[in-house]
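Listing S7. Sequence submitted for prediction.
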Amino acid sequence: MPKTKQDDPVAGQIEPSFTWETRIPHTVVLMLKSTEEDLILKACQSLYKFAHDGDLNQTLLIQYDILALLLDHLENPNRNVRRMSAMTLSELSGNNTVQSALVSAENVVRLVRVLRQDDDCVVDEVASSALLRLASDAAGRSMLLSCAAVDALVKRLTSRDPDVLKNCLDTLLVLLDSPVAVESFVDSRGVPNALELLASEYPVLQTLALAALRKAMHSADGRARVREVGGLEKLLSLLESAALEDLHSSAVAVLDAAIADPENIFAIHETGGLQKILTFVQTTTVSDVLEQCAFLHAKMAAHADVRDIFHELSAEPVMVTSLLATGLSGSQNGAARAIGHMCRKLESQEELVRLGSVSILLGMVSSPETFQSAVVALAAATRNHQLACRQICLGDHLERLVDRLGIQDEETVSHVAMVLRNMSEQETVRPVVAAGSAPTRLVACLSEESPVVLVSVCDALTVLCLNQDARTRVVRRGAADLFMDLLQHDDADVRDACVRAIQVVGCDFRCAEELCAGGAIGSLRRLRATETLRIVLEVNLSALFAVFGRLRTHHKLYDLFFDCGRQETCDSVPELITLHEQPMSHTRIVFLLNSGVCPYRGEDQPPPPPHGWKPDQGNSKRDQKESSQSKSKEGDAAAEKGNGDVDEKEQKLKGRDNSEKSGEKKQESAASDASPRASGKDHSSGQTSSSGPSSLPAAATAAPSDRPAPAQPSLPVPGFVPHDPEAAPVPTSSWPPVDYHLAGYVEHALTVIRPLATDREQSSALARLVAARMGGSVPREQLGTWSDEFHLCQLKRRAGGNVVFVGDVERAGMRCRALLFKFLADQIGLPCSLHRGAGGRHWNTVLLRGERETAMLGPYLDTVVDVMHEPGRLLPADSADAVEYTRGFESH
């Protein structure tokens, strides 16, 4: 080639020497455009050596636009030209400028096309190496995916050159992070080609192939493909070879990803693979592999059918001895998860507890690396298993478990609460749990934000609070306020769990009072938790009747009960003091029962104050006296108390007026004429009605204008202020005073009506007493013109508010009469219910022994008592007269 004249060099530019017929690189680059293959080959060889000398030479060649020429020659028909072009391009591809140029769509397409079509090892190595460099950049990966590079790389997995295989696998591992690449890999025989490489003599290729298979298992098609081509058997065969111990971890990882498809688990079992895995676990000693196998068992045991298979293969001893008891945190975590699933099968649960898994799990609770998995397994192992629950009670295991309620981990706290719930379900274990710190720690967890934790904690408290001591401690920790907040929670499951907890905790008087005062009535009504609302209102009969309009026979009325009317749609029932302080309203009237002789007689709880009443809102002189006596010595206190009792009796005797004495004589005469109830006498005398007492007390039978002034009853009335309806309104500090008229009715009922022989006689006599006191009988035809509004308005104006004492009422309709009948019936032990119906109707029913064989309640008959039209008449509840009576109308 003739030597051309060299151009003057640019100032500051250094031209490197060139060793082939010319010292100008630009001339050699121009030779690449020649049509002679020999000339092109020599130019490529010279350029390769020149580029290999350093980065400065590569930069100079790039300025001559050599990249496009080399890419063109990658598809040259001459194999040597293709090789030298590829080698030169490989040297240049390490330059950042070249990498940026190769990212163009045209150049990437050329490289992919060359890799797909050329089977020359040198060209394939260079092309795959160039693609690997491109894959390291996000833009390059995007270009490779758009040019279907995965198909070309999968095709070259059949190459015999290990360098080509390694480059292709490395590139695929980078690209397979994309779901699109995984789909292309599976569709283009990537799974079979990778499985073939497991038989390679190069461990690095085996490891890379397993890594590619693991990523391919992220696709459902990939998991199905590995099963169809027999890949599961090949993976298991790797585990059976001790010489391939370095590949065991990767093989288990592929199996772990493949069993996401349950069909692969059954395919493994059909070929004896599950038994092989169990045998492999017992023989391997590699900690990482044991951890992987433990989690592999946990994933498989999550399926019910697989648990049955594991039980048939006796997998429980392997899980306990070979995985859980190793002392390695990794294998223990996986084994604990597997045991948690296996305990769902009763036979496996029994076997695992027998093998001592609970003791090992309790030891794991103290470890910060294993306690999460341990509590998950314990929650499953203690479910309906008394022995497992008892084992936790030994030593300090229970307290260490409860301490885990204080960590900030949603899964751990929820499962610890499950363990406590399971333990509390065992009646013999519940007192042990209640005696520890579990109740208070569970209440603290009610302020968590996680719905999962809140549901678990509420369920645990629901069972634990069946123990009275635990319930008391929970209430003292302020559980009522937390429950009211949870009733407003956004999660429906949390609200339902809270309602279940309130059904149990609400049995506590203090908690129920706090719930009523805090607006839980409205929340429970909106949630339609009717039964829970009934339980909460059991401690407040005034609110119970206002909301539900019915009091059953076991609801005993005592002093300070009030009927404020229908409150079926309100969020809360007004308190008695609130009703007393409200201005007088023409549409509201509240009937109050306060005889002073019928205090609350609860056995388990102290007498409750009126709903919402404060301790200092009363005028009990006896309480003040006893408070001062408690500060003195015991002897002096006893003497003062005795003297006080004598003075009190003398005061009662002096306080009786002549009219009351005459009434007592009549009562005694009627009581002596009536047949007393003898011991063992049958109450079912067969009488359909009774004549009742021969006479009523003077206060009851007298006309309203002739009724004597209020007199103190003979029954003891401890320290209350007497009530005179004619007097000025009583100050709030000493309110409410005693209704002595009502106390006289109670005394008459106890001394005259209760001794009557049968319940029928008592019911009729009591109905006549109520009717006589409340204005007498009212014929049905006169109901349209008969009214008690004027009289009740007078009482309200006299009281200066809406609260009216029942003993002051002289003219009343069905509402006040039914209330008084229920109150007196409860004092004499007559089983009575109080009902409120539509249109203002109120009535009472009593349980009497029926005369018919087909009585509604078996031997007893639910009977309506007429206190309005024909006082004393007893109407069977299913009779036409009873239906007509209960559908009557009433002004109040």
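Caption to Listing S7: primary sequence and predicted structure tokens for the chain studied. The chain is about 60% helix and 5% strand. Residues 1-22, 603-722, 852-857 have pLDDT under 50 and may be disordered.
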